[in-house]
Amino acid sequence: MTLNRRDFLKLAAAEGATGAAAVTAVTAGGSATAIAQDLRRDPRPMPEDAVGLLYDSTLCIGCRACQVACKRANGMPVEVPEQYEAWNGGTWDTPTDLSGDTLTVIQVYQDGTMEQKDREVDGYAFVKRQCMHCTDASCVSVCPVSAMTKDPQTGIVTHHPERCIGCRYCVLACPFNVPRYEFDEAFGQIQKCQLCSNLPDQDIPACADVCPTGATLFGHTDVLQAEAQRRLAMAPGETYAFPRGTLLRAEDGGAPVTDRARQVAPVAHYRQDIYGEEILGSTQCRMLAGVPFGLLGLPEDVPTTSYASITEGIQHTLYRYMVAPMLLLAGLVVFAYRSSRRHRPEDWD
Ligand code: SF4
Ligand code: SF4
Ligand code: SF4
């Protein structure tokens, strides 16, 4: 019998499923679904002093100052995709996606004639991508060596390269496709936004610091959420003084204050939805937009509870007592045995 790679994967999956079923049946005596339910844990709550960004797509002018400031603050090089090399000669930083050298990127939705900003049909809209600093983060949950951690006070999700073994499990687990691996480096690392908390000279995130319109705003998540709700409650066209930089909690419980001059502008036609408020157990970075978030490339059709609360118990149970590695080893032994039988003279015909 010839066993190719596809056969092996099928076999390993089957052996694994059988083994897992046997193990779960023996240990708990119930159905796999019931056991999976039992292994769920409560979603982790947001820390009281959680911080994040509020990105308002309707205020964004696509200047990409945030992108440049992020690179400068984090010491990351210019990136020119292959398709742009011919016409700009590599003189202009034009990343099209997050990467090992780009922690935030401005992307654009375009439809038809692109006549009007923040309109779904014949319109366009900007979106800023970076780590969402999830309340119950998948990347933290799956990391086998605690190289991804969540600060108990601020909730900032940080990567620790000195602990990282480069397995890239966090890359696979992130629902927002954020952590990226430096594939072009001999000893590549995982890279992602850490809300500039890793930069001692940065009082506020560099992207929020330079944003000219206040489209990217820094602050405590509860303050940003209240600000987002305030904007959604206003009528389109109404004039509002939009805060820029940081939105600070007022000491006396009054209205929040900003650390620089506000920008007076008419309120746009918002979708009545704050992205990050409810999806996947919530995120500390939130967004507002005039077009559906799915059109901006953000996952929309996802559960409200965090993936980590569903899968962490199963994953940790499988790894406790080395069950998963043993199943993998068993699969490899079977594969090696069947392959070696093929080479015995008595099996030749
Ligand atoms: S967006 Fe991705 S990388 Fe950022 S905290 Fe959430 S799971 Fe982790
Ligand atoms: S918070 Fe800092 S690292 Fe994150 S996107 Fe903004 S500038 Fe870049
Ligand atoms: S700096 Fe502000 S306005 Fe400019 S692209 Fe970034 S978020 Fe948009």
Structural write-up:
This protein is of the alpha/beta class and 349 residues long. It has 2 domains: 5-43 and 307-347, no CATH class; 51-136 and 195-296, Alpha-Beta Plaits (2-Layer Sandwich). 32% of the residues lie in helices and 15% in strands. The chain has 10 helices and 14 strands. The protein has helices at 5-28, 32-39, 65-74, 82-88, 138-142, 169-173, 206-210, 221-233, 307-319, 323-342; strands at residues 51-56, 105-110, 116-117, 123-129, 148-150, 157-159, 180-181, 190-191, 216-220, 239-242, 246-248, 257-258, 263-266, 286-288. The strands form 5 sheets. Strands 12-11-9-1-14 form a 5-stranded mixed sheet. Helix 1 runs antiparallel to helix 10. The protein is globular. Bound molecules: iron/sulfur cluster (3 copies). One iron/sulfur cluster is lined by residues 131-134, 137-139, 157, 174, 176, 178-179, 192.
Task: List key phrases describing it.
2 domains, alpha/beta, 3-stranded mixed sheet, globular, binds iron/sulfur cluster, Alpha-Beta Plaits, 349 residues, 5-stranded mixed sheet
The total of helices stands at 10
Oligomer: single chain
Number of domains: 2
- The appropriate CATH architecture of the largest domain is 2-Layer Sandwich
Q: What general form does the structure show? A: globular
Number of beta strands: 14
Strand content: 5-15%
- Helicity level: 25-40%
Q: Bound small molecules, which ones?
A: iron/sulfur cluster
CATH C-level name of the largest domain: Alpha Beta
Q: Spatial order of the strands in the main sheet?
A: 12-11-9-1-14
Q: Write the CATH fold name of the largest domain.
A: Alpha-Beta Plaits
**What is the residue-mean pLDDT, rounded to a whole number?**
85
Give the H and E element order: HHEHHEEEHEEHEEHEHEEEEEHH
Distance between the termini: 11 Å
Q: State the major sheet.
A: 5 strands, mixed
- Compute the CA-based radius of gyration: 24 Å
Counting helices, strands and paired strands, the structural category is alpha/beta
Which residues sit in consecutive blocks of at least 5 with pLDDT less than 50?
Answer: 1-29
